[in-house]
Fold this sequence. Notes:
Number of strands: 7
Oligomer: single chain
Largest sheet: 4 strands, antiparallel
Structural class: alpha+beta
CATH superfamily: Immunoglobulins
Number of helices: 3
Shape: rod-shaped
CATH architecture: Sandwich
Helix content: 25-40%
Distance between the termini: 90 Å
Strand order of the largest sheet: 4-3-6-7
Order of helices and strands: HEEEEEHEEH
CATH topology: Immunoglobulin-like
Number of domains: 1
Amino acid sequence: MMPRTLAGSCILLGLMLVVSGCMEPPVKDPVVTVGNITLSDVTLRTMNVNTTVNIFNPNPLGARLNRLAFDVYYLDGSRTFLGHGEKSDIDIRENGNTTIEIPVTISNVQAVNAAGSLLRNGNITLYVNGSAFIDVKVTSFEKPFEQSRTFEASEFTGLVPATIPGTDINLSEGIQQLGGLLGSLS
């Protein structure tokens, strides 16, 4: 009886060693954050909002960003839609960060409404809200993210064309003066 128990224990111990050597460490969730929101190419017809998204993959194997999609809003008492950004099919490095910059062009009506908010308040708050869909070979994740950033009127002076073509109207000076005036009122 004793030899059978000893043999059974040895077989059980051997099986445990074999199985534990074949197990992979658990897959950890990637972390998705918005690194920065910037403005570029502001004209009378459009403005570009560049959103930088950082994906940290803590796993020892690379991943694939199947799709990253987000919407851009401005906040003025409520969320007002400005535009949509999207990227897909991007490799994500293992054990590290992958940074993706996505420009969103905002056109006519939305840009004018946002400019109206800027003129009324002396600043404008942009809000980004979206999700990243990440495939880590053995599983998939949907990782939501959001971020907001407030821009002061003075930050627009280098982005807006100096004058309206065909006129002597200087937009940069006007925005700068308006920003100063609104700042002194608050």
